[in-house]
Amino acid sequence: MFRLALRQTEGLIGSVIALLGLDLPVPDHSTSSRRAETLEVPRPASGPSGEPVHLLVDSTGLRLHGPGEWLAEKHGTTRRRSWRKLHLATDADTGRIVASAFTRGALRPYL
């Protein structure tokens, strides 16, 4: 969950339950580990009746700005800038994003 380790996830769930004012038991990290082994995450259906989905795949480059970037651009330094690429696969019919990846500029993701 949120790329947290199981102990941190246990603490997060406990904090959320406490903030909601609920009196519920929080599963132990070892219980979560055992359940995760057999947990099957349902994937969304391909289409209304299982037919193929037409995907639109596109990528765009994003330049990262850090402190002092405005001055560097104003005075024309030749320092290399960091680029990242955002790759998206969207369902052509609904426009819903089906898959995404954020990579360094030179890498090609497997969507």
TrEMBL record:
Region (Disordered): 30-52
Domain of life: Bacteria
InterPro entries linked: Tnp_DDE_dom (IPR025668)
Pfam families, per the entry: DDE_Tnp_1_5
Domain Transposase DDE: 1-66
UniProt name for this protein: Mobile element protein
Species this protein is from: uncultured Acetobacteraceae bacterium
